[in-house]
Amino acid sequence: MKITTAGESHGKGIFAVIEGLPSGVELDIETINFELSRRQSGFGRGERQRIERDKVEIFSGVRNRKTTASPLVLFIKNLDYENAKGYMSPEDCDEEIEKLTKPRPGHADLAGIQKFSLKDARNVAERASARETCAHVAAGSVARMLLSSLGVYVTGYVRSVGDVADAGEYSFGEIEKKRTSSLCMMDEGKEAQAIKLIEQVKEEGDTLGGVLEIRVKGLKSGFGSCMTAAEKLDAQLAFAVMGVQAIKGVEIGLGFSDAAKKGSEAQDAIYFEEGKYRRKSNHAGGIEGGMSNGEEIVLRAAMKPLPSLGKGLPSVDIETGEAAISQRVRSDVCAVTACEVVLESVVCEVILSAVLSRLGGDTAEEVRTRYGELQ
Amino acid sequence: MKITTAGESHGKGIFAVIEGLPSGVELDIETINFELSRRQSGFGRGERQRIERDKVEIFSGVRNRKTTASPLVLFIKNLDYENAKGYMSPEDCDEEIEKLTKPRPGHADLAGIQKFSLKDARNVAERASARETCAHVAAGSVARMLLSSLGVYVTGYVRSVGDVADAGEYSFGEIEKKRTSSLCMMDEGKEAQAIKLIEQVKEEGDTLGGVLEIRVKGLKSGFGSCMTAAEKLDAQLAFAVMGVQAIKGVEIGLGFSDAAKKGSEAQDAIYFEEGKYRRKSNHAGGIEGGMSNGEEIVLRAAMKPLPSLGKGLPSVDIETGEAAISQRVRSDVCAVTACEVVLESVVCEVILSAVLSRLGGDTAEEVRTRYGELQ
Amino acid sequence: MKITTAGESHGKGIFAVIEGLPSGVELDIETINFELSRRQSGFGRGERQRIERDKVEIFSGVRNRKTTASPLVLFIKNLDYENAKGYMSPEDCDEEIEKLTKPRPGHADLAGIQKFSLKDARNVAERASARETCAHVAAGSVARMLLSSLGVYVTGYVRSVGDVADAGEYSFGEIEKKRTSSLCMMDEGKEAQAIKLIEQVKEEGDTLGGVLEIRVKGLKSGFGSCMTAAEKLDAQLAFAVMGVQAIKGVEIGLGFSDAAKKGSEAQDAIYFEEGKYRRKSNHAGGIEGGMSNGEEIVLRAAMKPLPSLGKGLPSVDIETGEAAISQRVRSDVCAVTACEVVLESVVCEVILSAVLSRLGGDTAEEVRTRYGELQ
Amino acid sequence: MKITTAGESHGKGIFAVIEGLPSGVELDIETINFELSRRQSGFGRGERQRIERDKVEIFSGVRNRKTTASPLVLFIKNLDYENAKGYMSPEDCDEEIEKLTKPRPGHADLAGIQKFSLKDARNVAERASARETCAHVAAGSVARMLLSSLGVYVTGYVRSVGDVADAGEYSFGEIEKKRTSSLCMMDEGKEAQAIKLIEQVKEEGDTLGGVLEIRVKGLKSGFGSCMTAAEKLDAQLAFAVMGVQAIKGVEIGLGFSDAAKKGSEAQDAIYFEEGKYRRKSNHAGGIEGGMSNGEEIVLRAAMKPLPSLGKGLPSVDIETGEAAISQRVRSDVCAVTACEVVLESVVCEVILSAVLSRLGGDTAEEVRTRYGELQ
User: Chain C within 8 Å of D293 (Cβ-Cβ)?
Assistant: First the structure.
């Protein structure tokens, strides 16, 4: 399975193209739209989310709500294009409008200007924008539907917002229940604190990030492989997660805290019960030797505070070379909830891709049969 | 550029194949061997390092110490194969010898047995072993030689061993000087503490991990890209680093601590001086929007304590289903220093790959000319 | 550069997604539409071409008629979807309408039914249809625009229709002039004969194929490479051309007739004149050792007669297992002219891809400068 | 499955690396060596074949004659390296020895000199040489062993040598029987004529090519796919075959003669018998819509006469720019028999790759079970 995204933040819309899906996967379009709406939600989101009402349009690869094995094209229209086409149209438009000449520290703006020898950062900012993540939410939702039919489920939550951190341990079932709260945090007290912090930071014209945790339940052992670098499941997850806008760190299982432990504290003792190998703990986060080991996959990622600040940041006007405050661009104060949905989605993509490359299969039915035959 | 590794821990040896190198890269074979010896060194290494004397043999792709653009084959012989060929030979051998039937928690053993329907973990353990990393050290050294000729340098150090952590900030030059100390730590006091800890833990039959920091200096802005997922430089680095044996976390710049900051504290203010854009800080760790931004790349990774413990761990004998202590396999107590060398190496691979895909070039000379022309 | 296509023959439309284009390629949308109209033209085309009026819509990757380096999404709407949506809609529709249960020999129908465990061939026929080729015509037109700005040009003609064959030799300039004749043949007498043959064969309810010749002029030497299988330019061309619907053979230079020659008759003598290496002949068709050698690339392909015959072919009704005449599906009698345009297009894609992987380049300007610097 | 080759004609040896093989494939090393000896045989071969005695050495990926799923490294030593190391050693050697400064028309020599800015063609000629094909013979033999265990068989024969052509039609069984004759032709009279022709042409200091036919028997329908360009089986075969040294044309089924037929003559009528769909003919050569259709795959390729002639060809001395006769390099007069073995081998690689991507599978046993379950 291969997923390609396309589209710009204020262009006509965002695309996800999925190749390599088996035939006969049943799609619930309402569920895709529900995940898209979750991506738009969460306390701390900005004005753009009031303009957009993201709905997927399926252009190809599906007939009568079932995949055909032909490449899937999913499209999410940018309603804001109506306001932007004067400077964003593929055909004649005025590139002088909405020029982005005071690059925003933390964004792709300056590196992109240098890479592409540009006079302003518009072309770069349009593609680097996290608007692109709605493609992954749509594609990930499709992946999730096939995974669910195998008994593989993905969920997650927001573990911290700024310095409001939750140190609790939660079961998959508990997380799933909370998945649609206003900030997607598990502890209501922490969530209330976080909301207050977001309000305060918004007042200051500042922004916040946070830590997200993603879980995968029901994946049998042996997905991914230790045999080649390209097949390692943890490497694939790290690639997908680090590639999401604003992510600066990713860890699996104990992650960074693993480094401070002794071996006898860090590994997961094996025992055998009711015909199955089991573990006393899950410090490995479900992956050993680049393969799933049958335990829950536990992954955490760090999202930096968004770099588009209401009050701006010290920068340079590239037209004059003079010091300037970075361009004000409509943005969110805090988008951890959206990011949580996005991370679940890219994790769904990676897991399904590993499933299909191990099992092959031309039809969803074949995939399910072969999955069922694994020990 | 594409790098493929092959070989088993107790097989004939380890291979790295590098495709896509330009012609005319001058290779200093002694330097490759020096890096290989660094990978073998570091306080806390085990018996295997007393058997091996890793030296690269170049089989193809090089004439008269210069690359020819033909695929490079680098080989590091396993001297230990002489002891192992009775059960490891590709031709007739006895698979009953050295069976690995009490899987080691934290290793690929159990997941591999399940994936490949095996009666013991030997086939899996042989390939999952960190012995494979010498391929990356050899390949990374080759990549480093071309990078150095562009003025791009890679170094690193051990930031913590177990709970002995160094919170200092160090310049690239300082790190480079210390790169060959016995544990590759920067603070001599901490290094002494860490050595003591390793000795103590060795007594206990236990193991240790740590945190490594890697730096890249001299890389101009605009490598990688925000345009497609596959081109994002941070994602590529995360993939390569997480794919290294025993790594459980990776972060760039502030990484996980970025998540607790406000936007105004986390981004790197831009200014213009002497015809160049510069930054007041480097919280981003040299990457914004999936592209290098001209600042040093700063990456940290968490290595878990090694899962082959002298005293073993609770496991199951897969032949009987009975509880058992995991198989004792010769291993290191602590291999953070080796891991530091390996991480530098995979970072060299990723950076050179990004350089070549942006610049193209059939000859090293062409690559240098085009690199020089970038702003 | 990577090109992905999507879409079904009677679905909403056909997509081409182009990743890896440099920024700043100027697009003439009218030229894309002109090539699309050429694909629809040619004597012998069927009813479908009277329904469609193919025009490209650019969805992303372009602003103000210039590429931005963001993935390009090109869309060609299927006007016929209005008639087909009752059975083709991604959402609710009736799969019983227009079932294709009497598979057409020569089509993907039967193999597809078996592969995907289908009850009829609709899903397969929709994607296997040559309607997909309009994606390549659009993408190839974009590639051609950048190639033209380097001085690299692609043209072609129809060398035979059924048994009406032209044995002449033509210069690139002559071919370019004739490129828009009704059958795209060079010899007017042969073209008249071919038109008569098509009329006669149409009467019979039968179909015709032919041989196409494609030429590339102005490509400097050294594109592609002898160093790895993946880089061989002739292999890449063979892949792209053989992958086009209905193509059953591909040859470069003398091709199959090369096999009957002696070495002394088959190779192209080298001489040196005005500071350049030149050739006395071009039997190699511009490629030696998997690389362009600076001469014109000459490629021929064999297109089989279309397998959707007016009168049908002996087949089986898969619902009953009884013998039946294959399903009548609207089709062309002869589509060699369309195929010629398609082959030019995929050749443009391959050549540009080889150019970009050798030269790298973030902007069209950079690509042009580097191309100019080659000898 | 992915196959990488490395090595130079007069370097230490030739490598094939195979990634993605399932575990548990039983390897008969003698059979690999037998195919390697076939590649060295055939009337018309030159002096080099008297020096080499190609035997495979397996370096990794195999234990006790069974694959382990770890990457396979196969090595064929160049005995001639002993004579060549003075100018071919990766370490110190003298590049002035055996310089190739009078490029041979038809070889990679001149294009390679220009591409890599070389002073002589040695580096290019060493890699472009058909010596590399022994890697594919070894890898293809491994692929063949797994295919055979599925009931899929590959054979082939020489259809013409120069202008001595055989127009006969032969069954798979007949071909298999003749596969080891001195020229691998089917008709003894033609073979005798061809041998005479080779003798005569050798006298003249000239060379010969020919046409090869490859067959695949027992492959079920539905391998490859019509859904994406990358999956088309005919395109993959064309890529692999056209990438073989000296191949200038490839066709499937009727191939170029298909273009002259009417649709009613060219397609393969379908009927149903004993629970199976069958065909009255096999003009399609076993592939429709980019998928196997269950019939024999029939592929033909044109090999040009070898470009290293005893008497040389008109060229230029690149050191002086003066006209010169191309450098005399030891070569064969005719290598069609070797090429036949090579083409069988690359076809085995492509077919197995298509099998594994459709079926997945960690073990040979799993692959066999899933193959058996297909209709």
Answer: yes
Structure tokens at A41: 């939600």
- Asked casually if ipTM beats, i.e. exceeds, 0.95, the reply is yes
Query: Cα–Cα distances in Å, from D121 out to B79, C282, D124?
Result: 38, 21, 5
What DSSP character marks residue D131? Answer: G
Strands (E) in B122-268, as ranges, are 153-161, 164-165, 210-217, 247-252
* Dist. CA A25–CA A61, nearest whole Å: 11
Note whether A296 and A290 are within 8 A (CB).
Answer: no
Beta strands A270-273 and A247-252 are unpaired
Residue among B147, B204, B208, B205 at smallest CA distance from B183: B208
Report the residue from A89, A118, A362 with minimal CB separation from C116: A362
Which among D165, D221, D271 has the least Cβ separation from residue C111? D221
Q: All domains of chain C, ordered by start, with CATH?
A: 2-373 (3.60.150.10)
Residue B235 near chain D (CB below 8 Å): no
Is the pLDDT score of D327 beyond 90?
no
Instruction: Give the CA radius of gyration of chain A.
Output: 22
Token duo for residue D59: 């370096």
Choose from B76, B85, B92, B123 for mutation: most chain D CBs within 10 A.
B123
Q: Evaluate whether D93 touches B63 at the Cβ level (below 8 Å).
A: yes
3-state SS string for chain A: CEEEEEECCCCCEEEEEEECCCECCECCHHHHHHHHHHHHCCCCCCCHHHHCCCCEEEEECEECCEECCCCEEEEEECCCHHHHHHHHCCCCCCCCCCCCCCCCCCCCHHHHHHHCCCCCCHHHHHHHCHHHHHHHHHHHHHHHHHHHHHCCEEEEEEEEECCEECCCCCCHHHHHHHCCCCCCECCHHHHHHHHHHHHHHHHCCCCECEEEEEEEECCCCCCECCCCHHHCHHHHHHHHHHCCCCEEEEEECCHHHHHHCEHHHHCCCEEEECCEEEECCCCCCCEECCEECCCCEEEEEEECCCCCCCCCCEEEECCCCEEEECCCCCCCCECHHHHHHHHHHHHHHHHHHHHHHHHCCCEHHHHHHHHHHCC
Mean pLDDT of all residues belonging to chain A: 96
Number of H helices, E strands in chain C: 12, 17
Q: Residues D123-179: pLDDT tens digits? A: 999 999 999 999 999 999 999 999 999 999 999 999 999 999 999 999 999 999 988
Contacts D358 to A, Cβ<8 Å: 360-362
Helix axes D364-373, D133-150, angle to 10 degrees: 60
Q: Are A227 and D71 inside 8 Å of each other by CB? A: yes
Smallest CA-to-CA distance from C142 within C73, C79, C236 is with C73
| Spans in chain B with pLDDT lower than 70 | none
Per-residue pLDDT band at A51 (split at 50, 70, 90): confident
∠ CA A249-A251-A255, nearest 5°, is 125
The helix or strand, by DSSP H or E, that contains position D324, with its residue range, turns out to be strand D322-325
